[in-house]
Each structure stands twice: as C-alpha cells, then as structure tokens.
Specification:
39% of the residues lie in helices and 14% in strands. The protein is flat and about 70 Å long. Residues 201-217 have low confidence and may be disordered. The strands form 6 sheets. The protein has a 5-stranded mixed β-sheet with strand order 11-12-13-14-16. Strands 1-3-2 form a 3-stranded antiparallel β-sheet. The relative contact order is 0.12. Helix 3 (50-60) packs across helix 5 (85-93). The chain has helices at residues 3-20, 26-36, 50-60, 68-75, 85-93, 117-123, 137-146, 154-166, 171-183, 193-198, 239-254, 259-265, 270-283, 304-312, 384-392, 415-423, and strands at 66-67, 97-104, 110-116, 188-189, 209-210, 213-214, 229-230, 256-257, 288-289, 301-302, 322-326, 358-362, 365-370, 376-379, 401-402, 404-405, 425-428, 431-434.
Length: 439
C-alpha cells in the first residue's frame, strides 16, 4: 500500500470521528464530570469503600495539587463510603501511596499531591531540584542526613544533625525546617499523621503516669513530625515519557480534556504542552479531538468511551442530581473547564476556586456558592433544591451561619428568608443556621 494513501485514510477517519460527537451544554459536562469521578449525591453514600476505593480515587487524581485540608474533609468523603483517616494511613505507611508538597498556604495548610507509588516519581515536578541555592544551613544539614537513607524518624534526624557538628537543634526549629522543605517538594514523609496534626485534627498528647510517677520522657518529636522523613527519589523518565503520563492522567481524570481544565492544574508548559501530546495521541488512535462541549473551543480531547458517555447525559428527572463539593474539587467544572456565572444582580462578590469554599450543583447547574467560613452565600436561579442540599450536606469543619445571601441578610418574612426556613435553616440573632447545628 502507498504510505500517502494510508495517511489520507487516517486523516479522513480522524476528521469523521471529530464530527460524530454533537456538542452538549456546559451544564451537561459539569453533570457528566461528577459521575465520571463517582462523586456521591447529597444524602447518598458512595457505592465503593475501603482502601481499594481510596487507592482508585488517588489513581484518578494522581498529581493534582490540592490543599491538604481538603483531601480528607471534602475529596475522599464524597467518593469513598464511610471514609476514615485510617484508610489513607494504611496506604501511605505500606508504601502504596506517596505524597509531596507543592506550596505553602496559610495556617499550616499547603498544597499536596498524592499518587500511587509507582507513578509518583514520574509525576512529581522537577523544579524542586533547582532550589538548592535557596537553602540555609539547617536545611542543607537535613538534606545531607536524609540523602541516600531509606527514611529517618524525627529524633534520628536530630541526633545525626548533632553528630555533624551542628550542635543541639531545637525541636520546633527542626520541625519548621522539615515542613519548609516539604512545601518546596524536597522532603516527604511516609505518613499523613504529621500533616493531620499540623491542620489541628489530632489531639494533643497527654502526659501519662505509672504508679503515681511521671512517665519517662519519650524519644519522639512533636506530633507534627510523626512518621519517617525522606528525600524523594530523582524524577524518572524522559520529558516525553513524563508528558505522555500526564496526558493519560488528564484523560482519566476529566474524560474530556479542555483548555480550562489543564490551566486550572497549572501544569508545566500549560495547555500548549498538553495539546502537543494529546494531538499525538489522536493520531495514534488513543483519543479523539471533538467539539464535545459548547463554547469551549475545538481543542477538546477525550476517549471514545468518555465522549459516548457524555452524549448520553440528557436532562431528566432522574439526572437532576444534587451534589455539594468543594470549590477546588477537580469534579467541579466551574472555574476550570467552565467559567463562573456572573454574580447575581446587584452583587459584587464573586465566586472562586478557594480552599474552604463549597458549591452546590443541581443537574450540572451551579445554584449556590458558600464562601469559606460559612457566612456568605451566593444563589443563582431556582434555589429551593440548592438550599435543601446545603442544609442536609455533611460539611466537615464548617458551621454555617449565613449573614449575607446575595449581598444582604434576609429577614424571616422575606421571600428568601422563607425559602431558607423551608429548607431547614433557623433564623437567629447572629444569622441563619442549619437546624441540626443549633447555636
């Protein structure tokens, strides 16, 4: 066969596949994404549970940098039935899952990425190796101790730093140095316990006694330093191999990859780098380019199975699912693949993908946005179902007390106040609270 004839056949086959998928509205894609990532509806539990379910979630979200406080409060609970912290601890301490820092946030929080151990070394960014010039003496000593080791506990690190001639290092100072290196991606840990303690989720250790005497001092560090500390292995694979793995992760995570989804993850090289790899995937038959979602341009890539599934999502009573997810959740298409809607009339406050904020999606439509702190609420369109979902949803660590709904505080006799009361909110002098939370 003439090679040019085969190329022409391939080009025409690809072009035909692109035109087979009819574009769907953005709200349909938002609804599809919730199902694609198996996010449970409000009032229902996920169909999967246990460590296998947690590992499956981590595989789909491998490499995504999210606030550490969000993983166990908003990501796993809506995807894993009866999730508890022991499931993640079991995977990390067993070496099946690795995590690394990607930037420091306020109040002890920071951006953290998770991935199966066999993918972590290829998905980690390479820029952490370029920060050696920014290290102070203690940082350099910590890296020298950990270099080439299989991992040390906090007290072992402290002792070895002293053996290097640096003298006795204060525990708080060493703990601060370790976490500074973590947020720069240069040090990691085999446990999530220290990070959980940093976020205030772990109780403070109690002083115990034995037969009327104080217990002897234990050779452990602060609660925030639990687990074995180590330097992550060198990044594996060529640039091309790493780019291909990232592209595969994007397809598995979003089903249909758009420019906004890639930009929201702030990947190295941006959408241009991802586009080149996805276009090569298309030529190899591993995905197809199609105008699948209205208004998002022609540079959309998805597998045939994902695009077929997207086309089957149609408005209907059963499909008007209501979900409450974190604003930074990859399953929330708004602020990433889809733009945020304009604020309600007369409101200047805008929604954003912020840690601690929540969105309410009904049938794929964004109906409510709860700002961090639980005091400010934005509502769009018909909001009865949205308010009911917000009133019954489990939001760990959030006590809702609404003092602003679309820019003002509704009174008990206002139409919006009546809707809040009907949905399960109670009017108090300090604001509108959920009935089951009391004062």
């Amino acid at each position: 066969c003439e090679p040019e004839v085969l190329r022409r056949i391939r080009r025409r086959s690809v072009a035909r596949l692109r035109h087979e998928a009819e574009p769907v509205p953005g709200s349909t894609y938002a609804q599809f994404l919730l199902g694609w990532q198996q996010v449970a509806e409000v009032g229902q539990s996920s169909t999967r549970g246990g460590t296998d379910a947690v590992l499956a979630v981590i595989e789909q979200l491998a490499g995504v940098a999210l606030p550490a406080s969000t993983w166990e409060s908003a990501i796993f609970p809506v995807r894993v039935r009866d999730y508890h912290s022991g499931l993640l601890d079991q995977l990390t301490t067993a070496g099946e899952v690795s995590w690394w820092g990607a930037g420091q946030l306020a109040r002890g929080d920071g951006l953290v990425s998770l991935a199966p151990a066999d993918l972590a070394d290829a998905l980690r960014p390479v820029d952490a190796q370029e920060q050696q010039a920014e290290l102070d003496d203690l940082d350099a000593a910590v890296l020298k101790v950990l270099d080439g080791s299989g991992g040390y506990f906090f007290r072992d690190i402290s002792d070895r730093i002293g053996a290097l001639g640096a003298g006795v290092v204060d525990d708080d100072r060493l703990d601060t140095a370790l976490w500074s290196l973590v947020w720069r991606g240069m040090v990691t840990n085999d446990s999530w316990s220290g990070l959980r303690a940093r976020l205030g989720a772990s109780p403070r250790p109690r002083t115990t006694t034995r037969r009327g005497r104080l217990a002897l001092p234990r050779r452990v560090g602060p609660p925030t330093s639990a687990g074995r500390w180590s330097v992550p292995p060198a990044v594996e694979g060529t640039v091309e191999q790493r780019a291909a793995l990232v592209a595969e992760s994007l397809l598995g995570r979003y089903g249909v990859v758009t420019r906004g989804s890639v930009m929201a993850e702030r990947l190295t090289g941006g959408f241009a780098a991802a586009y080149r790899v996805l276009a090569a995937f298309e030529q190899a038959g591993r995905c197809q380019r199609a105008y699948a979602v209205e208004g998002l341009g022609a540079a959309q890539f998805g597998t045939g199975a994902a695009i077929d599934r997207l086309r089957t999502v149609r408005p209907g009573a059963r499909q008007q699912r209501a979900s409450v997810v974190s604003a930074v959740d990859p399953a929330n298409a708004y602020g990433a693949a889809l733009p945020w809607p304009q604020p309600p009339e007369g409101v200047t406050h805008r929604a954003g993908r912020k840690a601690g904020s929540w969105v309410v999606l009904v049938g794929g439509e964004l109906r409510a946005y709860l700002e961090k702190g639980g005091a400010t609420l934005l509502l769009w369109g018909e909001n009865c179902a949205a308010l009911q979902s917000l009133a019954t949803a489990r939001l760990p660590g959030v006590r809702i007390c609404l003092t602003s709904v679309n820019g003002s505080l509704p009174g008990p006799k206002d139409a919006r106040g009546e809707a809040l009361e009907a949905a399960g909110f109670v009017h108090t002098p300090s604001g509108w609270r959920r009935r089951n939370e009391g004062r």
